[in-house]
Design goal:
Blueprint lengths: L1 E6 L2 E7 L33 E5 L32 H6 L9 E5 L12 H7 L3 E5 L6 E4 L2 E11 L2 E8 L28 H12 L3 H4 L5 E4 L15 H8 L23 E4 L1
Length: 273
C-alpha cells in the first residue's frame, strides 16, 4: 500500500506503508497500524488533511493474496496534553553567548543590594538575569499586534519578569514640563508626579488590546537617582546605572536657590505596570 497525506498543497507522506511507520494498534482487532503524522495543535486551532491510499506499483496479478481482497481501515487521532512553555521558560531555554551578538547571562551580587532588608526581595533581585546584547539580536516578538523587542529577563522584588521595548516610538512627550505646579513649572524629578507617568500608565495603557493588558504585570520599578557626581558618557557604564537605580538616592540635588525649596517628597521605587 502507498499513502499520500495532504495538508493544503503540502504532501506529508508519499511512501509505502512500511515498517518504519509501524506503531502499536489502538483499535481492538486491528492487524497493523501506521503512524502517518506527528504534530501540535494550538488553542482554538483547526487543521484539515486529505488522505489517499492505493496499491503500490510493486503489487502484480501474481500477488494472489492482494487481488480481490477487501481492506478495512480506520483513521485514529491520538492526543495528549502538552504543557506550553511560558515566555520566561522559553528565554531560559535559549542558549547564551559569551561574545558577539546574542543573549547573555548577568549575575548580581546580593551584597550590592543595600536598600532593603527583605530577604525574599534580595533573593529575587540577586538571581541571574538574561539580557540581549548587540547591534541586532534576534529578539523580535509580536506584542499588541505590533513589533516589539525583548530586552531580557529582569529581576524584580516580585520575581523574574520579561522586559519589552516597542520597536517604534509612540511619539514625542515631555517628562513633566507642561503641567507640573512646582519649580516654576520647570517640572519635578519625581516619577509619580510626572506627565510621562500618566501618559504611560493610563493614556497609553488604556489603548492597548485587552489580551495585551492581561499579559502586563505590576512590579516595583526602581527609580533611584544620581548620587551627586557629575557623570558623563566617559565615566559611567551600565553597571553604575544599575546600582544607581537600586539606590536610595532621591535625585533632589539642587545648586540654585530658585528651585531648591519645593516640598515634593522623592521616592526611589514604586509599583508600576
Amino acid at each position: 500500500m502507498k499513502a499520500n497525506l495532504m495538508e493544503g498543497n503540502v504532501s506529508k507522506i508519499t511512501s509505502k506503508l512500511e515498517s518504519s511507520l509501524n506503531t502499536e494498534p489502538t483499535i481492538e482487532g486491528a492487524l497493523s497500524a501506521y503512524q502517518l503524522l506527528v504534530g501540535d495543535l494550538g488553542p482554538n486551532e483547526t487543521k484539515e488533511f486529505s488522505l489517499r491510499i492505493w496499491m503500490h506499483s510493486d503489487v502484480t496479478a501474481n500477488d494472489k493474496d492482494s487481488m480481490n481482497a477487501v481492506y478495512h481501515g480506520k483513521i485514529s487521532v491520538i492526543t495528549s496534553y502538552k504543557e506550553l512553555l511560558t515566555v520566561i521558560e522559553t528565554i531560559q531555554n535559549i542558549p547564551v553567548v559569551t561574545s558577539g551578538v546574542g543573549l547573555y547571562e548577568v549575575s548580581h551580587n546580593a551584597a550590592n543590594i543595600t536598600f532593603t532588608d527583605d530577604t525574599n526581595m534580595i533573593q529575587n533581585l540577586k538571581q541571574t538575569e538574561r539580557r540581549y546584547v548587540g547591534s541586532d539580536p534576534d529578539n523580535y516578538v509580536n506584542f499588541n499586534n505590533e513589533l516589539w523587542r525583548i530586552i531580557g529577563l529582569v529581576n524584580t522584588p516580585e520575581g523574574q519578569r520579561v522586559k519589552l521595548i516597542r520597536n517604534e516610538a509612540i511619539g514625542i512627550y515631555s517628562w513633566d514640563i507642561t503641567t507640573s505646579s512646582v519649580n516654576v513649572r520647570y517640572g519635578v524629578n519625581e516619577w509619580s508626579l510626572s506627565d510621562a507617568h500618566d501618559n504611560l500608565n493610563y493614556t497609553f495603557y488604556e489603548n492597548l488590546l485587552e489580551k495585551t493588558k492581561e499579559m502586563i504585570d505590576t512590579v516595583t520599578w526602581n527609580t533611584g537617582s544620581n548620587d551627586g557626581i557629575n557623570y558623563s558618557y566617559t565615566n559611567i557604564n551600565a553597571n553604575t546605572f544599575y546600582n544607581l537605580e537600586r539606590s536610595n538616592n532621591t535625585g533632589k540635588i539642587c545648586r540654585s536657590s530658585q528651585n531648591c525649596n519645593d516640598t515634593v517628597e522623592r521616592t526611589f521605587c514604586g509599583p508600576e505596570r
